[in-house]
């Protein structure tokens, strides 16, 4: 398919950038919800300077506000005034030159001038670019597919997944819009949720996807709108406005329908639920087995709901799954990717941290953090698992020695397959989060104890982050493939082997490092996935190393350059990200709005927006608060004693 980089998406490497910024900015808004009620004004209307005044104040810290003139002492105002007079005189004498200079460095000029040359980076400006990409995406969806669950931005069409729709994109995006302070869009979404969203539809839905995206989206909207009432503020006092518990009421209604999934003989949830009939259904394949990751990635959501409602049943059902999984005594803490809801036993022996396995590991450590480190058994399980990953899955590539996490497709006693789904790239960030609990590395060291294991885990996180970034650098568009293979030694090098990958990715097409990477023709698609920018966000917050922000910015530019749809159409997944121009796929995933753009936004935000030691983000990037279990909730199970396996494969 032929493809030209659309005019409305800027080339970030191009000297014509100022002009293109203007075009990009001006196309996005026209019929977005903001233009309707005037509170947001769209991209051009919320240009950089104007929008500064709309930037959120977190905990009364006006990050982006210039100091107020009204509060300045008189002497300072005089001095400024005097300085201004001098500048005006100079401008008068050097008129033409000065005019040109202003154009190059004012609102849009930062990308091509100082920031791009690396002299003075302005992360809030970069963050504003992310907001604009979000607005462009969401407004295209609003124009062409409002209320639909899917959005196909090239054909400008929507499609429902259920008879009346689930609000898939609207609900998944809601908390990103709250964080970005996009008030009128939140109001529009909220109206739709209040007036049009119903779960009273006879339709099978995925237990996991509906929980992480819809239940998670509603719960985090509830949390954020209470925790940060100045962000996208509600006007509930207005007559006819939806009530303040709208998100929680919808979440409760949905959860009551989803919770039937847990009513299996073992307590392991079935893969699907008919939400209209409150009826659970086993998966159609794998002998009715559920994906292990799916069964074990519902806990943060149902536990938070239990905390909010006081309904312990949600808690009990969610935690029971963890007990059943752990009773299988997985070797090295590594779980096969299927589990049978009838028996509670694993099905098959395929072990990977990619699809169907990934978020089991993620939710171990996040459950520990969610309840303020009161449930130490989840930390134990995480620690066992990470040791298992080192012993059985970590190896190094040839000849450059990148660190990878491979797969054991026929169990731990059989071959290591040197393959990483993009999904595995949640690991570097999650490992770092586990080490510090969300504190910065420096603060964690200061508070101590800082162990050799902590040091080694941070090292592993850094090395894996580097490899995940390499997966982007390897591709022609700078956007990673869905799956990357690697060249490894036979037998694979053990985790203890000396290794030192090159620090930089030489852009030469013949560069040595490229020999270590391999992308198969079937895997060249890019689905706008978040895992790498998710990890960059954690790595930046925890290590404070600016290179992670820089990598994120480079990745963001690749998305802008290669996935934008012409005529303000938003952004699309790619069928081939290894060609220039790329082959487009005509689909915008809801996690583009819920996760990928949210993580870019957070990566470029000040660190006390959603402080990492106070919250947990669910696997769909929906933030929930950490909490104490209190008198009602408690851990209802204990681990059976078992020997921890530390044998290297
Ligand atoms: C999201 O729905 C979640 O991040 C999930 O854990 C994995 N798949 C997608 C994004 O890639």
Summary keywords:
649 residues; mainly alpha; disordered N terminus; binds 1-deoxymannojirimycin
Characterise the protein shown here:
This protein has 649 residues and is mainly alpha-helical. The protein is 44% helix and 7% strand. It has 23 helices and 17 strands. It has a three-stranded antiparallel beta sheet with strand order 3-4-5. A three-stranded antiparallel beta sheet has the order 6-7-8. Strand 14 and strand 15 (583-584) form a beta hairpin. Helix 9 packs parallel to helix 11 (207-227) and helix 18 (427-436) packs parallel to helix 21. The protein is globular, with a radius of gyration of 25 Å. It starts with 16 loop residues before the first helix and ends in a 24-residue tail after the last strand. Mean pLDDT is 84; it is low at 1-120. Bound molecules: 1-deoxymannojirimycin (DMJ).
Continuous helix count: 23
What is the typical, i.e. mean, pLDDT? 84
What portion of residues belong to β-strands?
5-15%
Q: What would you call the structural class?
A: mainly alpha
Which spans of ≥5 residues are poorly predicted at pLDDT below 50? Answer: 1-120
Strands of the widest sheet, in order across it, are 3-4-5
Cofactors, ions, other ligands: 1-deoxymannojirimycin
**Describe the biggest sheet?**
3 strands, antiparallel
Helix content: 40-55%
Task: Count the E strands.
Answer: 17
Q: What would you call the shape? A: globular
User: Whole-Å distance between the termini?
Assistant: 46 Å
Radius of gyration, CA atoms, in whole angstroms: 25 Å
């Amino acid at each position: 398919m032929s493809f030209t980089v659309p005019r409305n998406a800027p080339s970030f490497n191009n000297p014509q950038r100022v002009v293109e910024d203007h075009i990009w900015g001006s196309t996005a808004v026209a019929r977005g919800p903001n233009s309707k009620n005037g509170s947001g004004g769209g991209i051009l209307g919320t240009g950089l300077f104007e929008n500064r005044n709309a930037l959120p104040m977190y905990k009364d810290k006006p990050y982006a506000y210039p100091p107020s003139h009204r509060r300045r002492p008189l002497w300072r105002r005089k001095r400024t005034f005097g300085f201004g007079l001098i500048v005006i005189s100079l401008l008068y004498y050097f008129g033409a030159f000065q005019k040109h200079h202003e154009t190059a460095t004012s609102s849009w000029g930062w990308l091509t001038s100082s920031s791009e040359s690396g002299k003075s980076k302005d992360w809030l400006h970069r963050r504003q670019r992310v907001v604009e990409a979000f607005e462009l995406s969401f407004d295209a969806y609003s124009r062409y597919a409002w209320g639909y669950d899917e959005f196909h931005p090239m054909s400008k069409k929507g499609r429902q997944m259920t008879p009346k729709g689930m609000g898939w994109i609207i609900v998944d995006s809601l908390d990103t819009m709250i964080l970005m302070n996009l008030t009128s869009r939140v109001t529009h979404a909220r109206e739709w949720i209040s007036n049009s969203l119903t779960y009273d539809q006879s339709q099978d839905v995925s237990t996991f996807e509906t929980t992480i995206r819809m239940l998670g989206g509603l719960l985090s909207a509830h949390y954020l709108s209470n925790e940060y009432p100045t962000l996208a503020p509600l006007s509930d006092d207005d007559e006819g406005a939806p009530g303040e518990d709208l998100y929680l009421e919808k979440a409760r209604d949905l959860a009551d329908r989803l919770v039937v999934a847990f009513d299996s003989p073992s307590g392991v949830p079935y893969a699907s639920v008919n939400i209209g009939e409150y009826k659970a259904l086993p998966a159609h394949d794998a002998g009715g087995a559920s994906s292990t990751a799916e069964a074990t990635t519902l806990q943060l959501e149902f536990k938070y709901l239990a905390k909010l409602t006081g309904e312990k049943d949600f808690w009990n059902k969610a935690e029971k799954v963890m007990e059943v999984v752990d009773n299988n005594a997985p070797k090295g803490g590594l779980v096969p990717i299927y589990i049978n809801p009838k028996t509670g036993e694993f099905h098959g022996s395929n072990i990977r941290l990619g699809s169907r396995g990934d978020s089991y590991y993620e939710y171990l450590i996040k459950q520990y953090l969610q309840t303020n480190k009161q449930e130490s058994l989840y930390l134990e399980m995480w620690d066992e698992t990470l040791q298992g990953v080192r012993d059985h899955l970590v190896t190094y590539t040839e000849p450059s020695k990148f660190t990878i996490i491979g797969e054991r497709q026929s169990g731990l006693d059989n071959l290591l397959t040197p393959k990483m789904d993009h999904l595995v790239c949640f690991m570097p960030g999650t490992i770092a989060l586990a080490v510090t609990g969300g504190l910065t590395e420096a603060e964690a060291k200061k508070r101590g104890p800082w162990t050799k294991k902590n040091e080694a885990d941070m090292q592993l996180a850094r090395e894996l982050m580097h490899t995940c970034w390499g997966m982007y650098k390897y591709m022609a568009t700078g956007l990673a493939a869905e799956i990357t293979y690697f060249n490894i030694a036979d037998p694979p090098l053990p985790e203890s082997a000396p290794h030192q990958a090159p620090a930089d990715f030489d852009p030469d097409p013949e560069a040595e490092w490229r020999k270590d990477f391999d992308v198969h023709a079937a895997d060249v698609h890019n689905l706008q996935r978040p895992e790498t920018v998710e990890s960059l966000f954690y790595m930046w917050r925890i290590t404070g190393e600016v290179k992670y922000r820089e990598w994120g910015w480079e990745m963001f530019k690749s998305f802008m350059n290669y996935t934008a749809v012409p005529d303000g159409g938003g952004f699309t997944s790619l069928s081939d990200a290894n060609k220039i121009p790329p082959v487009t796929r005509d689909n915008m995933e809801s996690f583009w709005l819920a996760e990928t753009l949210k993580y870019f936004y957070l990566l470029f935000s000040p660190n006390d927006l959603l402080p990492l030691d106070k919250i947990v983000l669910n696997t769909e990037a929906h933030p929930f608060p950490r909490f104490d279990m209190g008198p009602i909730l408690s851990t209802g199970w204990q681990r059976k004693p078992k020997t921890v396996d530390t044998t290297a494969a």
